[in-house]
Amino acid sequence: MSESTATSSLPTFSIDLGSIRFMLDYRFTIKDAYIDINGLPTFIVSDEPIKQKFQELLLDLGNHQLTAKIRRVADNLVVSVSPKPKLGKPHLRTNVILFLATIASVTYASYTLIYDVDPRLTSALFSGSNLLVQVTILAISILGIVGIHELGHVLANRHHKMDATLPYFVPAPPPFPFGTFGAVISLRGPPGNRDQLFDLGFSGPIAGFLATIIVALFAYLTAPVMSEQQAQQLLQANLLSISNWPNEPLLLELITGMGLRNVPSGHIMVLTQIAFAAEVGALITFLNILPVWQLDGGHIARAAFGDKGHKLIALLGFAVLFLAGYWGFALLLGFFMLISYRRGFALLEGVAPLDDVSPLSTSRKVLLAVALMMLVVCFFVF
Asked: How far is CA 58 from CA 10, 77, 170, in A?
């Protein structure tokens, strides 16, 4: 009975082992082959550049509902072949419902930000403007930044033919100031190699960062101008405030310092709630690009520095969160990591690609500097 039970628990394959070996033998020099304790065909192959060969192997195996992973064990490269896990159908209705709910929550938050303002400030900033137009611009700016961030991920997934869900937008109820907690895309299978993992992490933040720059420029170029005397009166009434880094993103300071507008002598420019949308974009980019766990920055760090390097850098990312006062976000990440740990994953463990042997491409190593730049210019104490 025990022998029968053991046999029935072994994975089943849609093709015979000889065909699997042929697919590997066509591309690699096989040094040894065996069935491991989990019943998976396992091959020790020669140590050579394998990035392209392994991706071709994954395509062939995928035609038979199989997949593989390759790891370095001592001085050997070890390939394990396994059946692809069976996945349920995506819940498109849930995506649509959450997206509509997020539109509503962001619009309500934007309405509150525009209308829940002292009439004196409203008169000074929006004299002659339609406030509903301001609400619409603010809501579109926030939704646009979040949506373009997620679009970056979607395009990267489709480029690499990775199996992932559409974005699940997360609405935030009042009194959360901008109406959304962002969005989540669930990866339904591991990326093929470190290049794909890097692109998965980098695509969202760079797209959202570019959208944030556009919103920040729009906020700066359309900001109202008032006399210094009027501004001083509003400051004394605590209706205006002066913010500098680190209480606003360095990105906004860089844009305002570019001198794109001529302000008449004796007048100053006042950034409105549209600039707040740019701050939201900077906040989303900063938090996502941190090299922590399975955030976008965690994918980047895991792809660039491997498992051990990623975990060390993740500790530094947590330190930044606590020192900058993002306690709530750090604790939330810790909560999700504990849930992952109870499911058998190591603490701080990131997403591992199927090919965890081939190094990151040179061009993506260069983009690490861009990721670090985004982290710096988007950081601020919210």
From this structure: 21, 16, 34
Q: Is 171 helix (H, G, I), strand (E, B) or coil?
A: strand
User: What pLDDT sits at residue 9?
Assistant: 61
Phi, psi of 22 (to 5 degrees): -60, -40
Eight-class DSSP state of 66: E
Q: What is the pLDDT of residues 216-259, one digit of tens each?
A: 999 999 999 999 999 999 999 888 888 888 889 999 999 988 88
Contacts for 257 with CB less than 8 Å, ≥ 6 apart? none
- Decide: 109 and 179 in contact? Cβ < 8 Å: yes
**Cis peptide bond prior to 246, omega within 30° of 0:** yes
pLDDT at residue number 10: 67
DSSP 210-271: HHHHHHHHHHHHT--EEEHHHHHHHHHTTS-----TTSS-HHHHHHHTT--S-PPTTEEE--
The single residue listed with the structure tokens 């491991």 is 36
Q: Residue 116 and residue 127: Cα distance in Å, rounded?
A: 16
Residue 11, preceding bond cis, omega within 30 degrees? no
80: enclosing H helix or E strand = strand 76-83
Q: Please identify every stretch of the chain with a pLDDT value under 70, giving residue numbers as ranges.
A: 1-10
Angle between helix 296-323 and 194-221 (nearest 10): 60
Say if residues 87 and 372 touch (Cβ distance below 8 Å): no
Between the two ends of the chain, the Cα-to-Cα distance in Å is 63
Q: Report which of 241, 234, 367 is spatially closest to residue 304, judged by C-alpha positions.
A: 367
pTM, two decimals, is: 0.91
> Where is 31: in which H helix or E strand?
strand 30-35
